[in-house]
Every structure is written in structure tokens, then in C-alpha cells.
From TrEMBL:
Name used for this protein in its record: Glycine N-acyltransferase-like protein
Family: Belongs to the glycine N-acyltransferase family.
Name of encoding gene: GLYATL2
Keywords noted in UniProt: Acyltransferase, Transferase
Ranges for domain Glycine N-acyltransferase N-terminal: 1-206
Domain of life assignment: Eukaryota
InterPro entries membership: Acyl_CoA_acyltransferase, Glycine_N-acyltransferase, Glycine_N-acyltransferase_C, Glycine_N-acyltransferase_N
EC number: 2.3.1.-
Acetylation keyword on record: no
Enzyme class: transferase
Domain Glycine N-acyltransferase C-terminal, chain residue ranges per copy: 208-296
Length: 300
């Protein structure tokens, strides 16, 4: 595998991957962020250039210092050549099988190759498949003179005190100070490494939230290094009050303005959440969302 350098090459690859959405979404979204300041210090690997068959995004080596930090140690994979998967994935120069890591992708057939190599290397695999939802075009919104404002103004907390007195909710951009709230409720989190990961996401990517009457987040969505909207949650007391809709209205406009890929995954048994996503215009993709957490036996 070759490390792909140069903004022009990355743009060519990005436009090419667009033709393979939704299967390429995880890689496509990661490259979007790599092209835009690359805050997670990731790199792109291809098997050949320009006639590639496989693309992997991963953190640069200096980022993967903690062998137990599978939040940072995440690989995104897209391939047009399933028969070459084992040959590529088994290579230690491509994946560090000595540490705990994740592989994420939107191609279910990756599973066979990942499990086969993991078994040969005494690595435990925890596999998760969920529904993948993506948004292609924005819903039409009512227009007003306020539409001419910078969208970031919509999220400023300039009227928090007034709104708190009235008991109203307020849409905001989250910042690292809100990471604790997110970490406490994220089913994949609730630990120190996930807290640091969420703080880093909120430093570098959009985190959307709604403040309740007490001035604390009651509903939120946080974007991660592949542009996926993850860590979504609404405090039970405030569910069914339209907070996710309020947040989604601003979120949608903001991300479309920046031409950011918009997608998320939802567990198959969370039908209400899936209905909300569909109500916003998200379309379910048959390929699904897939994650493999790989843990060497020495860390089990």
C-alpha cells in the first residue's frame, strides 16, 4: 500500500469515491476532513495510483501511541477488490495487529477477511452491524431575512440568560467543556479514553446541542473524524419535545453550507430513532454500517 500525498491527488480520489457512496462513506468522510486541515493527523493508503482498488484511512503512526486507545486507533476501509483484502490486511505495515483497534466500513463482506486474519494472529473480534442512514439533499426551509446571517450566529449563546428565565431551549455549538455530558451517555464510551476522544472531536468538528432550562445540554449530536454524526442522545426527561428536530434544522443547514457529508448509524432495534432520521430525509442504505473492534489476546 502507498501513502497518497498531495492535495490534488486527494481531491481526485475524493471525487472518485463519491461514485461509490454509500459503500465508500467512511473513507469518503475521513478524506473530507483530511483535505480540511486534517485535525486528527490521518493519512490515506491506496494499493495503486491512480488505478486504485483499495483505500484505507488511518492515523499517522505518531498518533497511535496508546495501544489500548481504539477510539484513535481506527481504520476506515473501502475496496473494489474483495479477493485482495487478506493480502493487504495481514501486512503489519498496513495495520498494527499488536494493539487494540477498530475497523469501520460500509461493506459487510470485509467480515470474512478480518475474522480469518484475526484468528491467525490470536486477536479477538467484536463485530457490530447497524443501519446506515445518509442525507443527500436538504429539506426546504422557510426563508426570512435571518437566512442571510452567518449560520454560526444561530448557535451563539448570546441570549442564554433570557431564554433560561423563560424556560426555553436553545440550539448551540458544543465545545470541549460539554464532553463529560456526552461521554456519560455514549454507549461506546463512559471511560477516560473515550472522554479524551470526545473532547478532541468537539475541539475540531461540529457538535450540535440543545440547552435545557438549567443551561446544560439535554440533546446532542457530535461529529467524528470520518464526518459521521455519532454520540447522539436526548435526556429521557426531554424526549418527545422536538429538541432533536430543533437541533436538526440548524445542523442540516450548517453542514450543507459547508458541503460536508451527512450520515449516521442507528441500531436496528431503535425504531423511533430511525423514524426521526427518516423524517429528516435520511435514507437507509442497504449496505449497512459495520465495525470490528480487534483486541489482541494479551489485552483481553
Amino acid at each position: 500500500m502507498l501513502v497518497l500525498h498531495g492535495s490534488q491527488n486527494l481531491q481526485i480520489l475524493y471525487e472518485s469515491l463519491e461514485k461509490n457512496i454509500p459503500e465508500s462513506l467512511k473513507v469518503y468522510g475521513a478524506i473530507y476532513n483530511i483535505k480540511n486541515k486534517n485535525p486528527f493527523n490521518m493519512e490515506v493508503l491506496v494499493d495503486a495510483w491512480p488505478d486504485y482498488q483499495m483505500v484505507i484511512t488511518r492515523p499517522q503512526k505518531e498518533e497511535m501511541k496508546d495501544d489500548l486507545d481504539h477510539y484513535t486507533n481506527t481504520y476506515h476501509i473501502f475496496t473494489k477488490a474483495p479477493d485482495k483484502l487478506e493480502e493487504v490486511l495481514v501486512c503489519p505495515q498496513v495495520i498494527n495487529w499488536e494493539q487494540v483497534f477498530q475497523i469501520q466500513g460500509c461493506q459487510g463482506f470485509l467480515d470474512e477477511a478480518i475474522r480469518k486474519i484475526s484468528a491467525s494472529k490470536s486477536v479477538q473480534v467484536d463485530y457490530l452491524k447497524t443501519a446506515l442512514f445518509r442525507l443527500e439533499t436538504p429539506r426546504k426551509h422557510k426563508t426570512s431575512s435571518d437566512e442571510k446571517m452567518e449560520l454560526t450566529e444561530l448557535f451563539k449563546m448570546h441570549k442564554v440568560d433570557e431564554d433560561k428565565k423563560k424556560g426555553n431551549s436553545l440550539s448551540i455549538f458544543l465545545d470541549p467543556s460539554h464532553a463529560g455530558f456526552v461521554n456519560e451517555q455514549w454507549e461506546f464510551g463512559k471511560n477516560e479514553r473515550s472522554l479524551k476522544y470526545i473532547e478532541r472531536c468537539l475541539q475540531n468538528f461540529p457538535g450540535f446541542g440543545v440547552l435545557g432550562p438549567e443551561g446544560q445540554p439535554i440533546s446532542w449530536l457530535v461529529m467524528e473524524q470520518s464526518c459521521e454524526l455519532r454520540m447522539g442522545y436526548t435526556v429521557p426527561k426531554y424526549r418527545g419535545q422536538g429538541n432533536m428536530w430543533q437541533m436538526g434544522y440548524h445542523l442540516e443547514k450548517y453542514l450543507f453550507q459547508k458541503k460536508t457529508p451527512i450520515y449516521l448509524h442507528v441500531a436496528d432495534n431503535k425504531e423511533k430513532v430511525q423514524d426521526i432520521a427518516k423524517g429528516f430525509g435520511f435514507m437507509a442504505s442497504p449496505c449497512g454500517w459495520h465495525q470490528w473492534k480487534c483486541t489482541p489476546k494479551k489485552y483481553c
